[in-house]
Every structure is written in C-alpha cells, then in structure tokens.
Amino acid sequence: MPITREGPDRSRFNPALELPYELRLKDFEIAMQDVYDFFHDVNTSLQVKGLHRLDDMLRPAAMSGLISDMLTSSIAKHSRTLVENRFHNGHPDLIVNGVYPDNSVKAGTHGVEIKSTRKRGGAVDTHGAREQWMCVFVYEVDTSTEPAIDRAPMRFTEVYLGHVTVEDFRRNLRSELGTRTATLDRHGIRKLRRSWLYMLRQTAEKRS
Predict the structure, then answer these.
(1) Nearest Cα to Cα of residue 194 among 165, 158, 148
(2) What stretches in the chain show pLDDT beneath 70?
(3) Which H or E element spans position 159?
(4) SS3 at position 30
(5) Which of 136, 122, 99 has the alpha carbon at shortest distance from 186?
(6) Measuring CA to CA, how many Å separate 47 from each of 20, 23, 34, 55, 101?
(7) pLDDT, tens digit, for every residue of 141-180?
(8) Of these four, 57, 72, 103, 167, which has the most CB atoms within 10 Å of its CB?
(9) Is the pTM higher than 0.85?
C-alpha cells in the first residue's frame, strides 16, 4: 500500500501574524513540506524493505531533534535574512546573516530559536530562560492504528512564533543527573499561543 504524502493546509496559516526578520508564511510552508517529503521518501524505502517506519523507530526526543534540525535548515535556505547558526549548540538556531563573525555565536540575540514537540499547546523545555524569538512546531505521530502499514503520516498541527522574555519562564528543578532547563510559565505560554502561525485545531487560546 502506497504511503500517503502529507502536506500543509494553506488555509490554516495566520496571515495577520507579524513576522520578524523578513520571514514569510511561505518560508514555513515550504519547510514543513520539506519535512513531510523527507519522511515520505524514507518511509517508502523502509516499507519496500519490510522495515518499520522511521516514525515508529525513533524515540520521541530523537524525532523532535531531527525535525527541529530539518526545519532550521529549510527555513534558513528559503529565508531572506536568516542563516543557520554555525556554533555547535549555539543559540538561537537561526541568526541574522552577517551580524556575528562567520555567522557563529554561542549566545546571540538576533534570530529565532526553533523547537518541535508532540505536546499540544507548544510547551517545550529550553536550556535557559532568555529573551528571544521562539518558534515551536507541534506535531503528531500515529502510533496506534493497526496494522501499522495503515498508520497516518506524521503531521504538524500547531506552529507558534512569538517574542518572549526572561520573565515569561519558570525554572525547572534539576535532578542529580539532570540538566537545568526552563519552560514558559502560564503567562508565557499564553503569550506564545496568541502568536499562532499555523493551526489545524481550534484551541481555547484561538477562540478567545
């Protein structure tokens, strides 16, 4: 059975949202399609070999990391002013071209941080509270349909792009072996959700 190729629903983008750094809704649409095409092509190849879909093999954290990296790369390719931050694990993921030497910075202020998560509403852990433009892609994976060959492809259900400050975060307790993280607090997440860019579902935040 052929695997379905997913695609963004153009009617679900928010044309009223003001985007920073000369970004366009089309940049996000193309980036989402690039991710969909990648999963379609890989899963089609895996199916021919009788193997599990990539969606089923990857752990959630690994899949979120992979999707974030692909989105960052694609948006940088199509954006008018943003490029990938060349500093390993540097912040933010996308920076304004030419602002930092060699387009590499450990902790910059001019750019956009890209996150992806399966958590509805866009709540996602970060490595620290800071003022930034944050873009969160929420996606869903069908892990329950049987037989597995009939499972729906991964799809993005929500995208948020908003400016947040240090005061919008709460610090998370760190275990002995854990890494210190920060998450948008109740006020911060409401603030981010008001800056929705793409929405497949009608949410309480949007209705209000």
Answers:
(1) 158
(2) 173-180, 202-208
(3) strand 155-164
(4) helix
(5) 122
(6) 40, 36, 20, 12, 45
(7) 998 999 888 899 999 999 999 999 989 888 776 645 456 6
(8) 72
(9) yes
Q: What is the DSSP letter of 22?
A: T
- DSSP-assigned letter for residue 19: P
Q: What's the CA gap between 200 and 191, in Å, rounded?
A: 19
Query: What's the Cα-to-Cα distance from 100 to each of 22, 93, 204, rounded to whole Å?
Result: 18, 13, 40
Q: What residue spans define the domains of the chain?
A: 19-207
Pick the CATH number of 19-207 from 3.30.200, 3.30.1340, 3.40.190, 3.40.600: 3.40.600
Residue matched to tokens 């387009």: 103
CB-based burial, 83-113: b 16+ in 10 Å, e otherwise: bbbebeebbbbbbbbeebeebebeebebbbb
Do 114 and 61 touch, CB atoms closer than 8 A? no
**Angle made by CA atoms 33, 35, 38, in degrees to the nearest 5:** 110
